[in-house]
Structure formats: structure tokens, C-alpha cells
Amino acid sequence: DNIKKLQKKEYMVSWKADGTRYMMLIDGENEVYFIDRDNCVFQVSGLCFPKRKDRSQHIQETLVDGEMIIDKDNGRDVPRYLIYDIIRFQGEEVMGVDFCRRLTCISHELYEPRKAAMQEGRIKRESEPFGVRQKQFWDASLTYKLLSDKFAQSMPHELDGLIFQPKADPYICGRAMDVLKWKPPHLNTIDFRLKIIKETGPGIVPKLVGHLFVGGCDLPYAKMKVNKQLRNMDNKIIECRVESGNWVMLRERTDKSFPNSYITADGVMESIKYPVDKDYLLHFIHDSGFRKRPTDSELMPPPNQRAAP
């Protein structure tokens, strides 16, 4: 049913990267901080955000949302922080304005001043701990381009789906029900807390079973076989997918201290039971009236093809 929301509101679309989410607080020179999913705060040294109107001054009282990704650049791993939303700018709350205006604020007030300062020699990119870029969004009519092989091959990091963001909506803290995520069916996963339990009983050979828990539910959401890989994963957060009707672990989520919520898990299960593949998604968008087919020049090239920090 979520896909029908694309008919009710105007949406923008971007690629979904396999990155780590951080909020960034910019509060003056040498006062830049990351806040992770567990609300742990740590300082980021060597990063500069000059003001647009006076690049000798530093931005303050600004809070943005984004993700850290690892780009591949000529065989090297290059960390970059992609800003995709803004909550507060220079002490002024901007989370209530529409998404398009928030994107404009990021571009004009954060990204472009940094770019200009680099050209002037005020910022030396090689001395910074990582790059900073604005994550690009496009009209939902361009979804077919983001799903093309050409786009995927031009990106410097792995893609694992799409994000659809309502154009007119404010920034919403917590779960935003109208922000839609799409993944190819084989990439649909749930983050569980694993509890390894010894199941036994009359006439039953004792065995270890993995009980998989989600947030907001005291009973196990699912179970899985315990193999050698899982034996040391008790009480860990693990990302799992369904293969041949069974849950299997893909990786430990060391960046998370809590599993997905029950609501999120149910949403993923719906996607697993009733998958929306690439062709269905594109046909739905086209048949819903997104028939504009812009030229290639209207789709900005991905970050590695732009003269960007």
C-alpha cells in the first residue's frame, strides 16, 4: 500500500547508500560534532564551514542530517559525509519549511561557500578528515535514470535502493511514515537483536536456537538456526534476510545498539511477502502520471563526476 503514496503527494528521489547515519552540529570554528544513532556525541576536528556572505566567519548553531559513506577513488577508500537534510541554520529553525527549500539552504549556505573557500585557498581539502557533499535529489519522474546501469556504474560507492522524499513535507523527527524506501527484493533486510536460547524438553534433544527480537515486542519475532558464525553473536544486533524460507545473517550492525521497531519489521515483511520489483515500480510511477522524460542533462551527474569537495 505504501507505493500508492506516490500518487497522493509530489516526491523527490535519491539513491540509498549503504552508509552510517550521523547528525552534524556546526557551532563555530573547531566546534563541529557528530551525533550517532545512540545519541553519542564526538568532536570532528579539522572541518570548516564558512559563512556565505563573509567566508572569514564560521557558521554556528546549525544542525544537519546525513550519512558517512566510503567512496572508491582510483583504488583508494575515501570517506565522505553526504548532507541530505537540515534542521536548524544559524540559530533559526528550518525543519518546518518544505524539503525543496531545505535543500536550497544546504546548497547555498553550506555546500557552495565551502566550495568557494576551497577555490580561494581558505580550505585545504587534503587537511580535512573527510569530504563533505550535498546528497542530490531529483523529481520522482527521474526514478528510471537512477535505476539504470549507467547511473550505478558511475557512482563511487555501492547502492542498495532508493529514497522517496515528499517535496512539501517538513523534517520529521523519528519515523517519517511518508518517506519511502525501496530496495530490490533480494536486499530487503531486518535488523534484529539475537538471543541464543537452549531449547529442550521431554523427548527433545537440546539444541541452540537463535531468537530474533525487534523493538516494542517481548516475544521473538522469528527464529533462526545457530551455526558456528552465530555462536558468539548472543545479544548482538544483526542484519538478516530471508533465503529459501529461512533467516540468515548478513552482518553484525556495530553502528546500532537497538533493533528495528516492530512497525519497521512488519513493513519489511510485507515487502518480502509482496515484493515490488524494479519493473513494477517504474510502471507504477509512469502510469501514475510521472510521464515527463527529461534529457540526460537534467539529471545531474553523480558526485564523483562533479568538481566538488
UniProtKB/TrEMBL annotation:
Domain mRNA capping enzyme adenylation positions: 1-183
Residue ranges annotated for the mRNA capping enzyme C-terminal domain, each copy included: 188-282
Record's keyword terms, sorted: GTP-binding, mRNA capping, mRNA processing, Nucleotide-binding, Nucleotidyltransferase, Nucleus, Transferase
Entry annotated with the keyword Transferase: yes
One Pfam family this sequence matches: mRNA_cap_C
Entry's localization field: Nucleus
Species name: Rhipicephalus microplus (Cattle tick)
Annotated Gene Ontology cellular component terms: nucleus
Name by which UniProt lists this protein: mRNA guanylyltransferase
Gene Ontology MF: a single term: GTP binding
Top EC group: transferase
Its EC number(s): 2.7.7.50
Catalytic activity: a 5'-end diphospho-ribonucleoside in mRNA + GTP + H(+) = a 5'-end (5'-triphosphoguanosine)-ribonucleoside in mRNA + diphosphate
GO biological process terms held by the UniProt record: 7-methylguanosine mRNA capping
Chief location: nucleus
